[in-house]
Amino acid sequence: MVALRESGESGSTSVTIPGAWKAESIEAYAFAVRADGKMASDTLHVNIESGN
Fold this sequence. Notes:
Elements: E1 27-30, E2 44-47
Antiparallel strand pairs: 1-2
């Protein structure tokens, strides 16, 4: 898991992945949680290679 940003904060967050990983094999899931750890959003699935 990679923490992104606090609510209201703008910008982008980058993550370095191991060079041996193939882009077509990477799947990402994004979601938001509240300060108390409870889910605050639906989960978004992104295929890294295609950007969908």
